[in-house]
Structure formats: structure tokens, C-alpha cells
Fold non-specific serine/threonine protein kinase.
Amino acid sequence: MTAHSSPETPATTSLVVGGRYELVELIGSGAMGSVYAAQDLVDERLVALKRLHAQRADDDTARTRFEAEARTLRQLSHPGLPQVYDVGEEDDGVAVQPYLAMRLVTGDTLSDLVTERGPLPPLEVAGLVAQLASALSAVHAAGVVHRDIKPANIVVGETGQPVLVDFGIATGDDVEPLTSTGEVLGTMEYISPEQVSGRRATAASDVYSLGVVAYQCLTGVKPFQRESPVASALAHLNDPAPDLPPSVDRRLGEVVQRMLAKEPEARPLAADVARLLERVLARRRRR
């Protein structure tokens, strides 16, 4: 996993995890676990260490999701995806907590960038989305669906490379479903129409969510955000995406609108999104 920002909050303990990872800084914490910057005492490098919360260690669903995320990430290799170095468990006498040691990349989430800067320049958005689509193509080629593409799960590193993080609710060929039929997982402002309808998420669902992200980056607003989650869900199902500003390159706008098609089969593959946006960038560079 990557750091969502430069570490600022100190770890509450100097615990060494797995006999080799000395916790240095708390990067972030969520419902399932926490992520630390940690010093790898064996390979002498900083890593991101993700641990399941002790209070969730006996939660079979939480543990299964954590282990599924580890399996998912270990089979993937792409500059836009987290690189897993090590997987293990730590028994601290209170609970047996699984952990992941991953490549540490400092940077800001795309959510923070849009909040701070407002709409991003169209060519910058085209470059970011092309790289993210390329990463998604690798994910989908491995038979995995992310299911929660959103700006908060995208970290833009110091080189400008976006990294897609948080595969905690991903599904794949070797990952058993962890929800009942019809249950919706994901973030409502970015979820696909088919997920709203209770259908299984597919690679096309990730493409739709990335299209929502692209629209937000270009305009500074979420195209289907409404006054309530239910209203947002209905908007995904029924409302067309608002027009993009005239300043957005026509070809870029066409790609984004295709990504936001209501029917999954009408959307381009992630690999095609990357290819089409690279063409947009190449044309603009020649001008």
C-alpha cells in the first residue's frame, strides 16, 4: 500500500512487528486496520505496514477480506498498484493480527488534490486517468475487480504516478464472495448502475467508477451526488452525466462519457481507455 500523505502522526508504540518492521509513523486508520510507515530492519528500507485492528482479529469476515487483499496484491505487478513485500501474522499476546508490508509512496490522495486545487487541467486528468486505466487493465487481466474506485483510494506520488490502493473489498476468481446476494459494496457517489441494481460488479463497473473520478477531476464536482445516498443511487441508474465544460478536449470528453454509459457492455475496456487517452495526449503534444 502507499501512504496517503507524508506521515505526520507518530505511532503510539515502538513495537517491532514480525521481528523486522519497526513502526515509525501512523499514516492512516480505517474501520478494518491501520497503516504505518515502518522501518524494515532486515532490508533497511521504509515500508508501508498495514495491520488488521486487534479488535477485528477474531472477526472472520474482516480477516478473510484482509487475507484476500493480500492474495490479490501479491499476484499483481504494475507501477500504478501497491507492491507487496511480505505477508505475515503477529501475536502480541492479545490477538493474532495479520499484516502486509508494502512499498511506501508518499503523496496526496486525488481527493485532496481536487479539494485543494479545484478542477484539474484536462491534459493532467487525461494523463492520470490513462495511467489508472492501465493499472486497472492489469487488475482485470488477473481476474480481479476492485469495486471501490474513488479519489480517496488513489494516491498521486511525488513523480506524478497515480497508485490505486485499498483492495479490501476486491473480488476475483480465487476470492469467495463475502456479502449476501444483492448487498451493495462501494461508495455511493462512484458506484456503477449495475451495482446499485444488486448485480455482480465486473471490470466494466470499475471503468464506470473511474469515469466518475475523471468527471470530478475535470469539473470539481461529482456528477451523481444528490441530497441523499438513495437519490445518488437513483441518479446513477437514471440520470445522464452533465455535459463537460467546453474547455475539455472533445476526444477526452467522449472517452469519459463512454466510461459513464449506463449499460456495462457499452463501456470501453480499461485497456482501451488507456489507449484512447494516450492518443489524446499524443495529439496535444504534437500541437
The first helix runs from residue 60 to 74. The domain at 108-285 is CATH 1.10.510.10 (Transferase(Phosphotransferase); domain 1). Confidence is low (pLDDT under 50) at residues 5-12, 173-185.
